[in-house]
Design a protein that fits this description.
Helices cover 48% and strands 11% of the residues. It is α+β, with helices and mostly antiparallel strands. It has 16 helices and 12 strands. The strands form 5 sheets. The protein has a 4-stranded mixed β-sheet. The chain has a two-stranded antiparallel ribbon with strand order 3-12. The protein has a two-stranded antiparallel sheet with strand order 4-5. It has a single domain, classed as Orthogonal Bundle (Cytochrome p450), CATH 1.10.630. Helix 8 (168-189) packs antiparallel against helix 9 (191-218) and helix 14 (286-296) packs across helix 16 (365-382). The N and C termini lie far apart (49 Å).
């Protein structure tokens, strides 16, 4: 991070932070992040924990065990509690709730991601992949993020809401604008302009969902809003505001995050044809390989508040501090995963923390895994020889709690699909 960036984005150091633990680490745009976001904390492995003044100040852990402990200890480190503001202005359910309220809602929502519902979604996800590939394959090149990685989860979300296909492109754009478009505005026009841009995007998303809720109150169907309209929690129906909170969270959490996961995986395979060929030769290896790709490419850095004075990772944290739990930092810890930078499709990577752990473990993880699996199967079967263009590389962009590929150009032999 340059001096000018540090001046505009950082804050004063609290008195209880040892000077030797202060590091200028920018989790969104720092040089370590832009080199390869999931492995950004590798540059700081000499420290078990450090403090960055960026973004108002955070403690950052670099060890799997400490990150896991922080994720699981919701009493000491509540998920976006009262200190850290919610950038959407809405209490997203159940993400921003902690037990016991969290458990009440989560029990209701678990049914939405049952094996039966996922099985019903898989043909729709494959159909979307086929449609995108039919357009991409004859061209011999694509910008993978906008042409495939983001449209797939955006289309899936539209299906979940029961919206027609003509809504897919609009939802895809809203998904990108929400986090990364707003971050671009913030960097180029300032913080207030970025917040205003994001507020308008949130209003558009919530307006669409609110209209669907009203329609489902009149006539239900086989979609998530209908499920929520008919659901009960502790003997009472959910309110419109509760349904809007849940449905908008699913959009915020499930579109660009899943698209990013797909893009990271395909970017790796574009650079490593040997690994790609193994998936082509043996598609049955894809589920295990996908879990390893999920481990290697964990890219979230979630904020949690410190609810009371507590010691962790050998340092004393004070009430009102904030911590940054970096999934990539945990997944690249050599104490948890030997040779963590090596992608080993035979590795048992099931203990990775990409989807979190504890009470806030991602509810949509099974759906995200399914979409990645379908993407790997369909893209590799249709376009087996993709690669990065000569002289081009992946560009990254940070926004909120994640950093994703901004541009992922691919070239390949043109072919028509059947």
């Amino acid at each position: 991070m340059t001096t000018s960036q540090a001046t505009s984005e950082t804050t004063s150091i609290p008195a209880h932070v040892p000077p030797g633990l202060v590091v200028d680490y920018d989790p969104q745009n720092g040089p370590e992040v832009m080199a390869f976001p999931p492995a950004a904390l590798d540059a700081f492995r000499d420290k078990r924990v450090f403090y960055t003044p960026f973004g108002g100040g955070f403690w950052v852990f670099t060890r799997y065990a400490d990150i896991k402990q922080a994720m699981q200890d919701y009493e000491s480190f509540p998920q976006w509690g009262t200190i850290t503001p919610n950038w959407t202005g809405r209490t997203h359910i159940p993400l921003r709730l902690n037990p016991p309220d969290h458990h009440k809602y989560r029990k209701v929502l678990m049914t939405m991601f049952s094996p039966r519902r996922l099985k019903a979604l898989e043909p729709i996800i494959r159909e979307t992949a086929h449609e995108r590939l039919a357009e991409i394959a004859p061209q011999g090149e694509c910008e993978f993020m906008s042409d495939f990685a983001l449209p797939l989860p955006a289309a899936t979300y539209c299906v979940l809401l029961g919206l027609p296909k003509e809504n897919f492109p609009g939802f895809n754009k809203l998904s990108n604008d929400l986090v990364f478009g707003a971050e671009h505005i913030r960097r180029t026009q300032g913080r207030e302009a970025g917040l205003e841009f994001r507020r308008k995007v949130v209003e558009k998303i919530e307006s669409i969902i609110t209209e669907v809720i009203a329609q489902r109150r009149e006539q239900t169907g086989d979609d998530i809003i209908s499920f929520l309209v008919e659901a009960e929690m502790e003997g009472r129906p959910l309110t419109d505001d509760e349904i809007l909170s849940i449905a908008s969270l699913l959009f915020f959490a499930g579109t660009d995050s899943t698209g990013s996961m797909i893009a990271y995986s395909m970017a790796f395979l574009a650079k490593h044809p040997g690994h790609r060929q193994r998936l082509i030769d043996d598609p049955s290896s894809i589920p295990t390989a996908a879990e390893e790709l999920i481990r290697v490419h964990g890219f979230h850095h979630n904020v949690r508040d410190v609810a009371h004075d507590v010691e962790i990772a050998g340092v004393q944290l004070k009430t009102g501090d904030r911590i940054l739990v970096h999934t990539g930092g945990a997944n690249h810890d050599p104490e948890a995963f030997p040779n963590p930078g090596e992608v080993d499709f035979d590795r048992d990577a099931g203990s990775n923390l990409t989807f979190g752990t504890g009470v806030h473990r991602c509810l949509g993880a099974p759906l995200a895994r399914l979409q990645l699996k379908v993407a790997l199967e369909e893209f590799n079967a249709t376009i087996p020889d993709y690669r990065l263009p000569e002289g081009r590389d992946i560009e990254y962009v940070g926004g909120q709690s994640k950093v994703q590929p901004r541009v992922l150009p691919l070239v390949f032999t043109p072919r028509r699909t059947s």
